[in-house]
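Anyone able to model this chain together with magnesium ion?
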Amino acid sequence: MTKIIKFTVDDIRFPTSKDLTGSDAIHTDPDYSATYVTVFTSDNNLKGFGIAFTIGKGNDIVAECIKHFFPLFIGKTIDELENEIGKLWFQCVDHSQLRWLGPEKGVVHMAVAAIFNCLWDLIAKKNQKPLWQFVVDSNPDTIMEWLTFKYIEDALSKDEAYNILQDSQNAKENRIQKILNEGYPSYTTAAGWLGYSDEKIIDLCNQYMSQGWRHFKIKVGLDLEADVKRLELIRNTIGQDCSIMVDANQQWSVKQSIEHINAYKKFNLLFVEEPTSPDDVMGFAKIKKEVGSVKLATGEACGGRIMFKQFLESGAMNVCQIDSCRLGSINEILTVLLMAHKFDVPVFPHAGGVGLCEYVQHLCMIDYVLINGEKDNKVVEYQDSLHEHFIYPCKVNNGNYMPPQDLGYSIEMKENSVNEFSYPNGKYWKKN
Ligand SMILES: [Mg+2]
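re: yes, here you go
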Protein backbone atom coordinates (compact mmCIF):
# COMPACT_ATOMS: atom_id res chain seq x y z
CA MET A 1 0.00 0.00 0.00
CA THR A 2 1.51 3.32 -1.09
CA LYS A 3 1.79 5.82 1.74
CA ILE A 4 2.62 9.51 2.04
CA ILE A 5 6.02 9.66 3.75
CA LYS A 6 7.35 13.22 3.45
CA PHE A 7 6.79 16.78 2.20
CA THR A 8 9.25 19.51 1.26
CA VAL A 9 8.64 23.15 0.37
CA ASP A 10 10.93 25.43 -1.66
CA ASP A 11 10.82 29.22 -1.87
CA ILE A 12 11.34 29.89 -5.60
CA ARG A 13 11.68 33.46 -6.88
CA PHE A 14 12.20 34.64 -10.46
CA PRO A 15 13.72 38.13 -10.92
CA THR A 16 10.96 39.45 -13.21
CA SER A 17 11.12 42.95 -11.70
CA LYS A 18 14.30 43.46 -13.77
CA ASP A 19 12.37 43.91 -17.07
CA LEU A 20 9.04 45.15 -15.62
CA THR A 21 7.19 42.00 -16.70
CA GLY A 22 4.05 41.95 -14.59
CA SER A 23 4.17 45.62 -13.67
CA ASP A 24 0.83 47.31 -13.04
CA ALA A 25 -0.55 50.41 -11.32
CA ILE A 26 0.00 49.04 -7.82
CA HIS A 27 2.46 46.17 -8.09
CA THR A 28 5.31 48.08 -9.68
CA ASP A 29 8.16 45.58 -9.31
CA PRO A 30 6.93 41.99 -8.94
CA ASP A 31 9.35 39.08 -8.72
CA TYR A 32 7.08 36.21 -9.77
CA SER A 33 7.46 33.55 -7.10
CA ALA A 34 6.16 30.14 -6.11
CA THR A 35 6.02 28.27 -2.84
CA TYR A 36 6.78 24.89 -4.32
CA VAL A 37 5.53 21.87 -2.38
CA THR A 38 6.59 18.29 -3.09
CA VAL A 39 4.92 15.24 -1.56
CA PHE A 40 6.92 12.00 -1.48
CA THR A 41 5.34 8.55 -1.22
CA SER A 42 6.66 5.08 -0.42
CA ASP A 43 6.65 4.53 -4.21
CA ASN A 44 9.78 6.27 -5.50
CA ASN A 45 8.13 6.90 -8.85
CA LEU A 46 5.06 8.63 -7.44
CA LYS A 47 5.39 12.22 -6.25
CA GLY A 48 3.06 15.19 -6.24
CA PHE A 49 3.91 18.87 -6.84
CA GLY A 50 1.98 22.03 -6.08
CA ILE A 51 2.44 25.78 -5.76
CA ALA A 52 0.97 28.95 -4.39
CA PHE A 53 1.86 32.08 -6.35
CA THR A 54 3.21 35.29 -4.80
CA ILE A 55 5.15 38.25 -6.19
CA GLY A 56 8.30 38.09 -4.08
CA LYS A 57 8.71 39.08 -0.46
CA GLY A 58 6.50 37.03 1.84
CA ASN A 59 6.86 33.89 -0.25
CA ASP A 60 8.82 32.52 2.73
CA ILE A 61 5.87 33.26 5.04
CA VAL A 62 3.51 31.16 2.90
CA ALA A 63 6.18 28.43 2.82
CA GLU A 64 6.42 28.43 6.63
CA CYS A 65 2.65 28.26 6.99
CA ILE A 66 2.40 25.29 4.63
CA LYS A 67 4.61 23.24 6.97
CA HIS A 68 1.94 23.38 9.71
CA PHE A 69 -0.35 21.21 7.59
CA PHE A 70 2.10 18.41 6.77
CA PRO A 71 1.47 16.29 9.93
CA LEU A 72 -2.20 15.86 8.94
CA PHE A 73 -1.18 13.82 5.91
CA ILE A 74 1.97 11.90 6.85
CA GLY A 75 1.33 8.13 7.08
CA LYS A 76 -1.94 8.19 5.11
CA THR A 77 -2.25 5.77 2.23
CA ILE A 78 -2.97 7.33 -1.14
CA ASP A 79 -6.34 5.57 -1.21
CA GLU A 80 -7.22 7.16 2.12
CA LEU A 81 -6.11 10.53 0.75
CA GLU A 82 -8.33 10.17 -2.32
CA ASN A 83 -11.35 8.91 -0.40
CA GLU A 84 -11.10 11.54 2.33
CA ILE A 85 -9.94 14.55 0.30
CA GLY A 86 -13.10 16.55 1.05
CA LYS A 87 -12.94 15.88 4.76
CA LEU A 88 -9.21 16.62 4.90
CA TRP A 89 -9.74 19.91 3.11
CA PHE A 90 -12.30 21.02 5.64
CA GLN A 91 -10.01 19.96 8.50
CA CYS A 92 -7.33 22.28 7.11
CA VAL A 93 -9.50 25.36 6.55
CA ASP A 94 -11.23 24.75 9.88
CA HIS A 95 -8.02 24.05 11.85
CA SER A 96 -8.87 25.18 15.37
CA GLN A 97 -5.80 27.43 15.74
CA LEU A 98 -4.63 28.27 12.20
CA ARG A 99 -8.11 29.46 11.18
CA TRP A 100 -7.54 32.54 13.36
CA LEU A 101 -5.09 33.77 10.71
CA GLY A 102 -7.83 33.67 8.09
CA PRO A 103 -10.39 32.26 8.27
CA GLU A 104 -10.20 31.00 4.69
CA LYS A 105 -8.24 33.97 3.35
CA GLY A 106 -4.74 35.40 3.23
CA VAL A 107 -1.53 33.50 3.84
CA VAL A 108 -3.17 30.59 5.65
CA HIS A 109 -5.57 29.97 2.76
CA MET A 110 -2.79 30.26 0.16
CA ALA A 111 -0.96 27.60 2.15
CA VAL A 112 -4.05 25.37 1.86
CA ALA A 113 -4.12 26.09 -1.89
CA ALA A 114 -0.48 25.07 -2.33
CA ILE A 115 -0.77 21.84 -0.40
CA PHE A 116 -4.04 20.76 -2.04
CA ASN A 117 -2.73 21.69 -5.49
CA CYS A 118 0.09 19.27 -4.65
CA LEU A 119 -2.27 16.54 -3.35
CA TRP A 120 -4.58 16.78 -6.40
CA ASP A 121 -1.52 16.35 -8.62
CA LEU A 122 -0.71 13.17 -6.70
CA ILE A 123 -4.28 11.84 -6.92
CA ALA A 124 -4.49 12.47 -10.68
CA LYS A 125 -1.13 10.73 -11.21
CA LYS A 126 -2.21 7.77 -9.08
CA ASN A 127 -5.23 7.49 -11.39
CA GLN A 128 -2.98 7.81 -14.48
CA LYS A 129 -4.78 10.87 -15.87
CA PRO A 130 -4.25 14.58 -16.45
CA LEU A 131 -6.06 16.36 -13.60
CA TRP A 132 -8.86 17.87 -15.76
CA GLN A 133 -9.58 14.43 -17.20
CA PHE A 134 -9.65 12.83 -13.75
CA VAL A 135 -12.11 15.44 -12.50
CA VAL A 136 -14.49 15.30 -15.48
CA ASP A 137 -14.40 11.47 -15.47
CA SER A 138 -15.45 11.36 -11.79
CA ASN A 139 -19.14 10.83 -11.10
CA PRO A 140 -21.29 13.55 -9.49
CA ASP A 141 -21.68 11.63 -6.21
CA THR A 142 -17.91 11.40 -5.78
CA ILE A 143 -17.40 15.06 -6.71
CA MET A 144 -19.99 16.18 -4.15
CA GLU A 145 -17.88 14.49 -1.44
CA TRP A 146 -14.97 16.81 -2.28
CA LEU A 147 -16.94 20.02 -1.78
CA THR A 148 -17.77 22.23 1.21
CA PHE A 149 -21.06 24.14 1.16
CA LYS A 150 -20.65 25.74 4.56
CA TYR A 151 -21.51 29.48 4.33
CA ILE A 152 -22.71 29.30 0.70
CA GLU A 153 -25.78 27.10 0.90
CA ASP A 154 -28.03 30.15 1.01
CA ALA A 155 -26.82 30.96 -2.53
CA LEU A 156 -26.21 27.45 -3.91
CA SER A 157 -27.79 24.40 -2.34
CA LYS A 158 -26.27 20.94 -2.52
CA ASP A 159 -29.20 19.79 -4.65
CA GLU A 160 -28.65 22.61 -7.14
CA ALA A 161 -24.94 21.78 -7.36
CA TYR A 162 -25.65 18.08 -7.80
CA ASN A 163 -28.18 18.79 -10.55
CA ILE A 164 -25.69 20.95 -12.47
CA LEU A 165 -23.13 18.13 -12.35
CA GLN A 166 -25.75 15.55 -13.27
CA ASP A 167 -27.04 17.62 -16.21
CA SER A 168 -23.61 17.70 -17.83
CA GLN A 169 -23.16 13.92 -17.82
CA ASN A 170 -25.00 13.33 -21.13
CA ALA A 171 -23.13 16.02 -23.00
CA LYS A 172 -19.75 15.16 -21.49
CA GLU A 173 -18.27 12.92 -24.19
CA ASN A 174 -19.13 15.37 -26.98
CA ARG A 175 -17.64 18.24 -25.06
CA ILE A 176 -14.43 16.29 -24.40
CA GLN A 177 -14.06 15.57 -28.11
CA LYS A 178 -14.69 19.23 -28.98
CA ILE A 179 -12.16 20.49 -26.47
CA LEU A 180 -9.53 17.97 -27.60
CA ASN A 181 -9.99 19.17 -31.19
CA GLU A 182 -10.38 22.91 -30.66
CA GLY A 183 -8.82 23.78 -27.31
CA TYR A 184 -10.07 26.71 -25.22
CA PRO A 185 -9.73 30.37 -26.32
CA SER A 186 -7.30 32.63 -24.47
CA TYR A 187 -6.45 36.31 -24.23
CA THR A 188 -2.99 37.78 -23.77
CA THR A 189 -1.87 40.21 -21.10
CA ALA A 190 1.70 40.21 -22.26
CA ALA A 191 1.46 43.17 -24.67
CA GLY A 192 0.33 45.83 -22.24
CA TRP A 193 2.31 45.95 -19.01
CA LEU A 194 2.39 49.42 -17.57
CA GLY A 195 6.17 49.74 -17.76
CA TYR A 196 6.34 49.07 -21.53
CA SER A 197 7.04 51.75 -24.17
CA ASP A 198 4.61 52.49 -27.05
CA GLU A 199 6.97 50.86 -29.54
CA LYS A 200 7.19 47.71 -27.47
CA ILE A 201 3.39 47.56 -27.15
CA ILE A 202 2.88 47.91 -30.93
CA ASP A 203 5.49 45.25 -31.66
CA LEU A 204 3.97 42.84 -29.13
CA CYS A 205 0.39 43.40 -30.35
CA ASN A 206 1.46 42.64 -33.93
CA GLN A 207 3.43 39.63 -32.80
CA TYR A 208 0.53 38.14 -30.82
CA MET A 209 -1.98 38.87 -33.60
CA SER A 210 0.20 36.96 -36.05
CA GLN A 211 0.18 34.04 -33.59
CA GLY A 212 -3.62 33.93 -33.51
CA TRP A 213 -4.66 36.08 -30.53
CA ARG A 214 -7.75 38.29 -30.87
CA HIS A 215 -8.12 39.51 -27.26
CA PHE A 216 -5.68 41.90 -25.59
CA LYS A 217 -5.62 43.12 -22.01
CA ILE A 218 -3.70 46.21 -20.96
CA LYS A 219 -2.86 47.66 -17.59
CA VAL A 220 -4.25 51.11 -16.76
CA GLY A 221 -4.72 53.23 -13.68
CA LEU A 222 -1.93 55.73 -13.13
CA ASP A 223 -2.95 58.61 -15.41
CA LEU A 224 -6.29 58.97 -17.21
CA GLU A 225 -4.93 60.87 -20.21
CA ALA A 226 -2.01 58.49 -20.69
CA ASP A 227 -4.37 55.52 -20.45
CA VAL A 228 -6.69 56.92 -23.13
CA LYS A 229 -3.64 57.47 -25.39
CA ARG A 230 -2.50 53.87 -24.91
CA LEU A 231 -5.99 52.60 -25.59
CA GLU A 232 -6.06 54.61 -28.83
CA LEU A 233 -2.65 53.25 -29.76
CA ILE A 234 -3.76 49.67 -29.16
CA ARG A 235 -7.15 50.05 -30.88
CA ASN A 236 -5.37 51.50 -33.94
CA THR A 237 -2.87 48.65 -33.91
CA ILE A 238 -5.27 45.73 -33.50
CA GLY A 239 -8.32 47.12 -35.35
CA GLN A 240 -12.04 46.90 -34.55
CA ASP A 241 -12.40 43.13 -34.86
CA CYS A 242 -10.22 42.39 -31.85
CA SER A 243 -11.22 42.87 -28.22
CA ILE A 244 -9.57 45.06 -25.62
CA MET A 245 -9.97 44.70 -21.87
CA VAL A 246 -8.28 46.78 -19.17
CA ASP A 247 -7.01 45.99 -15.70
CA ALA A 248 -6.68 48.74 -13.06
CA ASN A 249 -5.38 46.41 -10.34
CA GLN A 250 -7.35 48.02 -7.49
CA GLN A 251 -6.00 51.50 -8.12
CA TRP A 252 -9.08 53.74 -7.84
CA SER A 253 -11.69 54.89 -5.36
CA VAL A 254 -15.32 54.24 -6.28
CA LYS A 255 -15.68 57.79 -7.63
CA GLN A 256 -12.46 57.62 -9.69
CA SER A 257 -13.52 54.23 -11.06
CA ILE A 258 -16.74 55.71 -12.44
CA GLU A 259 -14.86 58.65 -13.99
CA HIS A 260 -12.19 56.47 -15.61
CA ILE A 261 -14.51 53.77 -16.88
CA ASN A 262 -16.87 56.30 -18.46
CA ALA A 263 -13.87 57.93 -20.19
CA TYR A 264 -12.93 54.56 -21.74
CA LYS A 265 -16.41 53.84 -23.07
CA LYS A 266 -15.58 54.82 -26.66
CA PHE A 267 -13.14 51.91 -26.85
CA ASN A 268 -15.94 49.36 -26.44
CA LEU A 269 -14.04 47.35 -23.83
CA LEU A 270 -14.83 43.69 -23.19
CA PHE A 271 -14.45 44.34 -19.46
CA VAL A 272 -12.76 46.50 -16.81
CA GLU A 273 -10.89 44.50 -14.20
CA GLU A 274 -10.39 45.31 -10.50
CA PRO A 275 -11.20 49.05 -10.62
CA THR A 276 -11.18 49.29 -6.82
CA SER A 277 -10.54 47.23 -3.66
CA PRO A 278 -11.12 43.52 -4.32
CA ASP A 279 -13.10 43.27 -1.05
CA ASP A 280 -15.51 46.12 -1.77
CA VAL A 281 -18.63 44.33 -2.98
CA MET A 282 -20.83 47.37 -2.35
CA GLY A 283 -18.33 49.65 -4.09
CA PHE A 284 -18.38 47.44 -7.18
CA ALA A 285 -22.18 47.50 -7.11
CA LYS A 286 -22.16 51.33 -7.02
CA ILE A 287 -19.68 51.49 -9.91
CA LYS A 288 -21.73 49.06 -11.96
CA LYS A 289 -24.82 51.21 -11.51
CA GLU A 290 -23.01 54.25 -12.96
CA VAL A 291 -21.21 52.70 -15.93
CA GLY A 292 -24.14 51.08 -17.72
CA SER A 293 -23.30 48.16 -19.95
CA VAL A 294 -19.55 48.07 -19.17
CA LYS A 295 -18.75 44.71 -17.55
CA LEU A 296 -16.77 44.58 -14.32
CA ALA A 297 -14.34 41.73 -13.78
CA THR A 298 -12.81 40.68 -10.50
CA GLY A 299 -11.82 37.65 -8.43
CA GLU A 300 -8.06 37.15 -8.68
CA ALA A 301 -7.70 38.62 -5.18
CA CYS A 302 -10.88 37.14 -3.70
CA GLY A 303 -9.81 34.92 -0.84
CA GLY A 304 -12.56 32.32 -0.93
CA ARG A 305 -15.96 31.11 -2.00
CA ILE A 306 -17.78 33.42 0.43
CA MET A 307 -16.48 36.55 -1.30
CA PHE A 308 -17.48 35.07 -4.65
CA LYS A 309 -20.94 34.36 -3.27
CA GLN A 310 -21.42 38.03 -2.42
CA PHE A 311 -20.02 39.36 -5.69
CA LEU A 312 -22.05 36.94 -7.80
CA GLU A 313 -25.31 37.33 -5.94
CA SER A 314 -25.14 41.14 -5.89
CA GLY A 315 -24.58 41.47 -9.64
CA ALA A 316 -21.37 43.41 -8.95
CA MET A 317 -19.17 40.82 -10.71
CA ASN A 318 -19.93 40.40 -14.42
CA VAL A 319 -16.85 38.33 -15.25
CA CYS A 320 -15.64 35.84 -12.63
CA GLN A 321 -11.87 35.57 -12.39
CA ILE A 322 -10.99 32.62 -10.18
CA ASP A 323 -7.37 32.20 -9.12
CA SER A 324 -5.91 28.70 -8.90
CA CYS A 325 -3.56 29.57 -6.03
CA ARG A 326 -5.73 31.84 -3.91
CA LEU A 327 -8.87 29.72 -3.80
CA GLY A 328 -8.31 26.53 -1.83
CA SER A 329 -7.54 24.35 -4.87
CA ILE A 330 -10.01 22.05 -6.69
CA ASN A 331 -12.22 21.53 -3.62
CA GLU A 332 -13.17 25.20 -3.48
CA ILE A 333 -12.73 26.14 -7.15
CA LEU A 334 -15.50 23.73 -8.13
CA THR A 335 -17.98 25.37 -5.75
CA VAL A 336 -17.18 28.79 -7.26
CA LEU A 337 -17.55 27.46 -10.83
CA LEU A 338 -20.93 26.02 -9.82
CA MET A 339 -22.09 29.29 -8.24
CA ALA A 340 -20.95 31.31 -11.28
CA HIS A 341 -22.91 28.96 -13.52
CA LYS A 342 -26.01 29.33 -11.38
CA PHE A 343 -25.80 33.13 -11.51
CA ASP A 344 -25.00 33.06 -15.24
CA VAL A 345 -21.67 34.85 -14.89
CA PRO A 346 -18.91 33.68 -17.26
CA VAL A 347 -15.66 32.45 -15.69
CA PHE A 348 -12.45 33.85 -17.21
CA PRO A 349 -9.75 32.40 -14.91
CA HIS A 350 -6.84 34.60 -13.86
CA ALA A 351 -3.42 33.46 -15.08
CA GLY A 352 0.05 34.72 -15.91
CA GLY A 353 2.46 34.92 -13.02
CA VAL A 354 4.38 31.70 -12.75
CA GLY A 355 2.58 28.39 -13.12
CA LEU A 356 -0.89 29.95 -13.25
CA CYS A 357 -1.29 29.23 -16.98
CA GLU A 358 -0.25 25.63 -16.30
CA TYR A 359 -3.08 25.45 -13.75
CA VAL A 360 -5.89 27.30 -15.52
CA GLN A 361 -5.62 25.14 -18.63
CA HIS A 362 -7.09 22.36 -16.45
CA LEU A 363 -9.69 24.61 -14.82
CA CYS A 364 -11.19 25.94 -18.06
CA MET A 365 -11.52 22.39 -19.40
CA ILE A 366 -13.33 21.38 -16.18
CA ASP A 367 -15.63 24.41 -16.34
CA TYR A 368 -16.54 23.67 -19.96
CA VAL A 369 -16.94 19.89 -19.82
CA LEU A 370 -18.38 19.40 -16.35
CA ILE A 371 -20.28 22.58 -15.55
CA ASN A 372 -20.91 25.33 -18.04
CA GLY A 373 -20.81 23.81 -21.54
CA GLU A 374 -19.87 27.11 -23.20
CA LYS A 375 -16.50 28.31 -24.34
CA ASP A 376 -16.75 30.23 -27.59
CA ASN A 377 -17.56 33.57 -25.95
CA LYS A 378 -15.15 33.10 -23.10
CA VAL A 379 -11.42 33.62 -22.87
CA VAL A 380 -8.86 32.57 -20.32
CA GLU A 381 -5.81 34.68 -19.50
CA TYR A 382 -2.49 33.72 -21.05
CA GLN A 383 0.93 35.17 -20.59
CA ASP A 384 4.00 34.00 -22.41
CA SER A 385 6.61 33.92 -19.67
CA LEU A 386 8.43 31.49 -17.36
CA HIS A 387 6.95 28.37 -18.99
CA GLU A 388 10.47 27.13 -19.68
CA HIS A 389 10.87 26.19 -16.01
CA PHE A 390 8.18 23.50 -16.16
CA ILE A 391 8.61 19.92 -17.33
CA TYR A 392 5.10 19.88 -18.85
CA PRO A 393 4.44 23.52 -19.89
CA CYS A 394 1.02 24.51 -21.23
CA LYS A 395 0.56 24.36 -24.99
CA VAL A 396 -1.20 27.13 -26.87
CA ASN A 397 -2.20 26.71 -30.48
CA ASN A 398 -3.48 29.68 -32.53
CA GLY A 399 -4.47 31.46 -29.30
CA ASN A 400 -6.17 28.38 -27.78
CA TYR A 401 -5.07 26.43 -24.71
CA MET A 402 -4.83 22.78 -25.74
CA PRO A 403 -5.96 20.17 -23.15
CA PRO A 404 -2.97 18.84 -21.21
CA GLN A 405 -2.19 15.21 -21.94
CA ASP A 406 0.48 14.51 -19.31
CA LEU A 407 -0.48 12.98 -15.97
CA GLY A 408 -1.25 15.24 -13.03
CA TYR A 409 -1.66 19.00 -12.60
CA SER A 410 1.29 20.12 -14.84
CA ILE A 411 3.33 22.03 -12.24
CA GLU A 412 6.48 19.94 -11.78
CA MET A 413 9.50 22.23 -12.21
CA LYS A 414 12.84 21.39 -13.77
CA GLU A 415 15.46 20.55 -11.17
CA ASN A 416 17.85 23.11 -12.66
CA SER A 417 15.27 25.87 -12.27
CA VAL A 418 14.64 24.95 -8.64
CA ASN A 419 18.38 24.98 -7.92
CA GLU A 420 18.95 28.24 -9.75
CA PHE A 421 16.06 30.28 -8.34
CA SER A 422 15.61 28.96 -4.79
CA TYR A 423 15.68 31.93 -2.42
CA PRO A 424 18.09 32.95 -0.93
CA ASN A 425 20.56 30.12 -1.56
CA GLY A 426 19.95 29.28 -5.24
CA LYS A 427 22.73 30.04 -7.72
CA TYR A 428 20.99 33.13 -9.15
CA TRP A 429 20.27 34.79 -5.81
CA LYS A 430 23.76 34.09 -4.42
CA LYS A 431 25.25 35.98 -7.35
CA ASN A 432 22.80 38.92 -7.21
MG1 LIG B 1 -5.51 41.38 -12.90
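The chain has a mean pLDDT of 96.
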